[in-house]
Amino acid sequence: MMSTDIPKNCKQASSFRSTSLFDPVKLRIGNGENQPITIPQIFEETLNKYGDRPALKSQDRDKNWVSQTYKEYWNNTRLIAKGLIKLGLKQRTSCGILSFSSPEWFITQMAAIFAGGVSAGIYLTNSAETVYHILHTSNATCCVVDNSAQMAKVKSVRHRLPQLKSVIQTEAPFEDFIDSEEGYYSWSALKKIGGSDPNLEEELQKRLDSIVANECATLIFTSGTVGMPKGVMLSHDNLITSAKIIIDGLNDITSDHQDVLVSYLPMNHVSGQIFDFFMGLILGSCVYFADRNALKGSLLDTVLEAQPTRFFGVPRIFEKMQEKLVTEEQKISWMSKLALRTARRRISNYILASMGNENKKPNSLGYWVGAKVTGKYIMALGLGKCKNIFMGAAPSALELKKFFMSFDMKLSEMYGLSETSGPISVCWNLDGLESCGKAMSGVEVRLANEDERGHGEVCTRSRLVFMGYLHEPEKTKETFSEDGWFHTGDIGYFDANQHLYISARLKELIVTSGGENIPPIQIEQLVKHELPGLSNTFLVGDRRKFLTMLVTIKTDIDPKSGKPGDNLQPESIEWMKSLALPYVKLSQILKAGPCPKVLQSIQEGIDRANAKAISNAQRVQKFSILPHDFSIPTGELGPTLKLRRNIVLEKYADVIEDFYKNTYK
Asked: Distance between CA atoms of 263 and 295, rounded to whole angstroms?
């Protein structure tokens, strides 16, 4: 049951949906649920509890770690908020943020909200035209960028943005026009402006007093496969409720020990928002900021320094950690390898035997001894103090979870979207090892249009569901049923214990020319399981007579550019050794055409995967080795390391067409 009264800290609203920054929404508050609270109010609660604790830690230009307490974070937020007001940030307009995750990102978002505006994060990889689209769509009156390259993008389109009053750059070096040409400022100048006019304090307080929990606080611009990104409107209540629901399930929260987080994902991604910004704020955590090369390989350095107590990673990050552990195993003696493998087996057996068997625990001695052996490897990853490790934002392989489980690292898989303010479900205790867990507290989930196997589109209804797409009333309406269920576009099913499994993305389903619907992820993971030396497998076959596959072989990554290198990873080298091949470089495999032995090995792996296919239509008929692995700089992976299927199809169109030559009459 939901109350019909207007909750405290909310405005009167006529609908659960909104597509305007000026219109609040109704909230689905069930009996006994937390009452709405605004983001500034949550910040003030944390300030009163943990004011002297370190809040934000980052490295300066000399690589020294610099810390801000929550009291300093609060004071800097108010100072920057006053500066943004002075420079033209109007209420119910946005402040664009084009920056890598940093203390300035956190302070800017919080300051924009304090000033009665909203934040609108922008991916660093976005083109100038996409930057224009986001600033224009969100009615940005201010924009903060981190360096001169991002400043150049905004400057090139600013003449088309009459509402954009000021652009602020946080990092040196600065071009000559910064702090000299009207409308362009440095971060230090913004701070001075915020402290220059005593009347700004009164205006800031007036704006703070007008903030309500059922209005938009943050815009997440989704990176869609077609057209420009849509602005997902998330309210104060969406964001805080999502973070609080996750916190309710965390292990070992104590007021006398500070939680530690590592921020490395783009902060305009919902995972970064919920885990780093809002969970960190509510818990009074210390957030360490990785440098901008984190996804190119430097993340481990920050994790080792921070020793986080909670960690969220996308599957690709854990795949890289897996590669590091495999590399370390190759270096140890055969006796140490035997001890490690025995320990891993005992840990896996114990955890698997414990699942769903709360009343009768298996003998724990083997597990305890095994954990002592594997513990040093987890410490080498910087995750030895982690109480919760979450994985989400992209599909993951069962083998990846099993690998880390054998090291006594339980990856709690989460499933959710930007439109659901983050997670819909979470697998807290690995009971549904292949699933993404059960629906979170207060979240309703059902399936629409189920087929004969019980698979249907995942739909959800809760307090976490977004307000709407900014200025997109028709697209907003299309995603909801008449009774308020949000249609995710994902295909899933439930097991007997109500664990949710995601089997496909509606937009990514391959529909063959014979009319069979095929989920690519399942087949791709089958092949990768058979061939661990492969880094990526990409299924092709939409509107085609049969399935084909593009594959990449595991190689190293250039730590400076982030581009894939030529040196093979240890798993790939071991694969080559098993074929009696001396290759240690990808170029050796591909020289004068792919090596026949490697081609034969891949074909045999695909044959083994095909033997597990549920129909002939789901068998891979042809494949090709690509000249390099997928990466962000080469375009196949997005800013959060998620596969960009449309880009891969475009980039390798010639290779794909070769598969199907002379097959049609």
From this structure: 11
Which pLDDT value is given to residue 223?
65
Question: Inter-axis angle of helices 398-405 and 334-354, to 10 degrees?
Answer: 110
φ, ψ of residue 510 in degrees (nearest 5): -90, 125
Query: Over the stretch 629-657, which tens digit does the pLDDT of each residue have?
Result: 998 889 898 877 788 888 898 899 999 99
Angstrom distances, CA of residue 532 to CA of 86, 342, 347, 422, 567:
57, 21, 22, 31, 16
Which amino acid appears at position 263 of this protein?
Answer: S
Among candidate residues 149, 148, 84, the one with its CA nearest the CA of residue 116: 84
Query: How many other C-beta atoms lie within 10 A of the C-beta of residue 377?
Result: 20
Tokens of 80: 């920057």
Dist. CA 416–CA 425, nearest whole Å: 7
* Residue 55 host element (H or E): strand 54-59
**Within its chain, how far is the Cα of 8 from the centroid?**
32
Question: Does 317 score more than 50 pLDDT?
Answer: yes
What are the residues whose beta carbons fall under 8 Å from the beta carbon of 117, sequence distance 6 or more? Answer: 84, 89, 90, 91, 92, 93, 94, 95, 141, 142
Cβ contact 411:390 at 8 Å: yes
| pLDDT tens digits along 20-78 | 999 999 998 877 778 899 999 999 999 999 999 999 999 998 899 999 999 999 999 99
Nearest to 258 by CA among 54, 4, 397, 11: 54
How far apart (Å, rounded) are the C-alpha atoms in residues 504 and 388? 27
The β-bridge partners of 490 are 505
**What's the one-letter identity of residue 182?**
E
Q: Give the separation between CA 109 and CA 99, rounded to whole angstroms.
A: 11
Neighbouring-strand partners of residue 288: 57, 262
Residues 466-490: tens digit of each pLDDT = 999 999 999 999 999 988 899 998 8
Beta bridge partners of 59: 65
pLDDT digits (tens, 9 = 90+) for 154-191: 999 999 999 999 999 999 999 999 999 999 999 999 99
Domains, the chain, ordered by start = 39-211+249-299 (3.40.50.12780), 510-660 (3.30.300.30)
Contacts of 348 (CB under 8 A, 6+ apart): 402, 405, 406
Q: Which amino acid is at 541?
A: G
- The count of other CB atoms within 10 Å of the CB of residue 396 is 22
162-166, 259-263, 331-335, 421-425: least confident range = 331-335
Question: What torsion do the CA atoms of 564, 567, 570, 572 make, to the nearest 10 degrees?
Answer: 80
Between the CA of residue 153 and those of 96, 124, 135, 144, 489, what are the distances in Å? 13, 10, 12, 12, 33
Helix, strand, or coil (residue 333): coil
> Mean of the pLDDT values across residues 452-460?
90
Compute the half-sphere exposure of residue 344: CA atoms within 13 Å on the CB side of its CA. 20
Closest to 215 in 3D by CA, of 96, 92, 114: 92
Q: DSSP state, 272?
A: I
Is 500:435 a contact under the CB 8 Å cutoff?
Answer: yes
Q: Taking the model in full, what pTM does it have?
A: 0.85
